[in-house]
Amino acid sequence: MRLSALSLFCFALGVLLAGCETESSGIQRARLLQRSAITREPPGNYFIGRRYYNSYYKFWGYIRSPGQPWATSQLVMLNEKQKLAPDREINQIGVDDNCEYRLYGHFTGDKVYEPASNHQYPEFLLERYELIDRNPPSIFPPGARLQSTEIAKPEN
């Protein structure tokens, strides 16, 4: 009986560990594909934005230049004088968390104070946007978004 229980435990542990290894390699593969796609982005007068919704803060998300890795992106405050943010346009704040967009507009050169984080963030004047992907691979290290008051930083 003991041998049977030990065998069952070892089998279950092996299945669990094999599942973890597959997920890890799957994540690694997705990140490699994402990096490859970023290097193939054509240069142009646009930016790539990733919505990063956190109910504690009022920033919009991360914006980077085409062809540049997410580690170079900036967390921004969005100026919506010309165009409303995608989620605000449909009056469903945060519904587009983690969505990726092609953004047209420019950095104003101003910094905007965000009181909950007690930081200033660059201001981006949004002129228009195009949805690229509703469910892109994560740009954050594993587990980085677990703390709701923690601000995650992109790694790739």
Short description:
By secondary structure, the chain is of the alpha+beta class. It has helices at residues 2-39, 86-89; strands spanning 47-51, 61-64, 74-79, 100-114, 119-133.
List keywords for this structure.
single chain, 156 residues, alpha+beta, OB fold (Dihydrolipoamide Acetyltransferase, E2P), 2 domains, five-stranded mixed beta barrel, 27% helix, globular
Shape annotation: globular
What is the topology, as strand order, of the major beta sheet? 1-2-3-5-4
Distance between the amino and carboxyl termini: 50 Å
Number of domains: 2
Count of individual beta strands: 5
- State the order of secondary-structure elements, H for helix, E for strand: HEEEHEE
Radius of gyration: 20 Å
Helix content percent band: 25-40%
CATH class category of the largest domain: Mainly Beta
What does the average pLDDT come to? Answer: 84
What is the structural class? Answer: alpha+beta
Low-pLDDT parts are 5-23
Q: Main sheet, how many strands, which sense, barrel? A: 5 strands, mixed, barrel
Q: Classify the fold: give the CATH topology of the largest domain.
A: OB fold (Dihydrolipoamide Acetyltransferase, E2P)
The CATH architecture of the largest domain comes to Beta Barrel
